[in-house]
Structures are given as C-alpha cells and as structure tokens.
Amino acid sequence: MTRFLICGLGSIGRRHLRNLRALGQEDIVLLRSGKATLPDDELAGLPVEREIGAALKRWEPQAVVVATLTALHLEAAIPAARAGCHLLLEKPVSHDLHGIDELREAVAVSGSRVLVGFQFRFHPGLQGVKLLLEQGAIGRPTGVRAHWGEYLPGWHPWEDYRLSYSARAELGGGVVLTLCHPLDYLRWLLGKPLGLFAQTAHLTDLELVVEDTAEISLTFPGGLPASLHLDFVQRPPEHTLKIIGTQGTILWDGLEGSVRVYSTRTLEWQAMPPPADFERNSLFLDEMRHFLRVIDGQAAPACTLEDGVEALQLALACKESSAARRVVELDR
Length: 332
Known about the structure:
Dihydrodipicolinate Reductase, domain 2, 332 residues, 9-stranded mixed β-sheet, alpha/beta, 6-stranded parallel β-sheet, Rossmann fold
C-alpha cells in the first residue's frame, strides 16, 4: 500500500481522491488551505496538514498528487521531489518558468518519477488518432485544426467564476494556460512545433482580467500548418480535432469520445466509437492506474516532466507572440 499526499482539494484534487479510493488506495493524507468551496463530507476521517514541509516530515508519503492552484504547483512539487516522492503533477506544470530548473534538479538527485496530468493522453479516441497517423491511414498530414470552446461560468456552478484560478492572472489563469491540453496532445501527435503565432484577447462580457479567447497558428515538422482556437465563452461547448491528409481525413470529437476516418481508398467514413463504458472520469481513472504503475516502477511516465515543461513553454510562447505581435521560433 502506497501512502499518498494530495495537495489541493478543489475539484481535481477531490477527483483524484475518489479515484485513488476506487482503486483500493486508502492510505491518504490531505494538504489543504481550507479555502475550498466544496463541502467536506468526502474528506471526513482523513488526516489534514497545512504546510508541505510538515506533511512530508510527519507522514513520509511515497507519492504526492499536486493539484493546487497553478501558480502554487512548484511550492509543493519541489520539496516533494527533494524528499524522493513520486509526483502526479497537474497541468500546466506552473504559470511561468521560474523554479523549473530547481524541480528538474530535485528530481534528478532524488530519482523521483513525475507524471504530468495531461489526461487526454489517456483518451481512447486520441490514442486511436495517434495509431492511425503512425499507420499512415490518411497519408501525409497537410492541415490540422483543433478547437476548444467552453463557457467558463458553467465549469463550477457552485462558485463565483471571477474568483477561480482560471480567471486570475496571478494564479496562472487565462484561456491559454487553463486550456493548454491541445498544446500537449498536438505535440504528442505531430512532433515538436517549429514556431507559432498567436493572438489572444479579452473579447467577451465575462468579468475577467485575463484573455478569454486565443487563436494560435503553429508550424510542425515538414512545414505542416496547424491552427488552434481556445475560448471561455462557447455554448454549447466544443472540443474537436480535424487532421487532413493526402489520402483522407480524421475527425475526433472530444465530447462524444468518437473518431471518424475517411479514406480515399475506400471512399467511405469509418466510425470508431469509444468503449461502451467510457465517460469523462475514465481519462482520470486510467491516468491514476498508470501513475500507480509508475510508482511501482512498472511503467515509464506517459507524460514526463519534460513533456509538461515543453507544453508550458508553448503556452508562454503564445503569450509572448500575442504581446509582441510576431512569430516566435521555438527550439528544435
């Protein structure tokens, strides 16, 4: 039995708690500020700490789930890594690059293993897309369009969206950092981008001090152009990916979980539905199953610390590009 420390008990921290319990893990300690807006019923009986150093010293956990506010991730991750704990570190890794080298050093010295929480890597549809691309099912990709629009006030109806981390720059909010999943899975599917140009803005009536809309153009290896739209306003929500190739087209619907592929050889669409029991929590549950295997040394992290850092660098490059109104070239 592994002892877990969960840092942060907002909605994602509580999801991880429920999934750990569903997987038979009961040796769990909580590190929390006490400021969560959710009821505490499901937390009853679990030991609680307020400070990371005290929690690590008193309980000596083998694994730490970092689910605090984005801007506070490294405050928990660095001491936990120094203590040799394995980390499930929520995305994005942080809100800037300060402290990243310190975390890298701590991980290298202690040997702790880090899984970054980009749960869409565990989506059966996107895994199917990756396999189709590797098999050359649509020939050579020639164009890519990713889209994620979702109404921010509807995410957590129990709290004032204006006070959420997504709405506050100092906590790591804004649509680019908050909805950075496509920046990770586009890298995962297509390789490291060579450059990007982004336009970000606050265009809605939402009471925010961060950008709520982003339009991003990326160039991938081979000159492959891709575009990504993000927003905090769209109703109904949409989370889709289209990849056009020389011999067909792939369509993924993230809300339905389905994939459709058109082949110029058959002149037909083939549907690839998700597993019958698939639902949103399946991503997080599979992620946690994988983390347990990472802890036991049975698997390498599917999304490494460096993967997480590169996704953060892409998000920050989007902000830089928008502010400077220029293309940002990326390290190859």
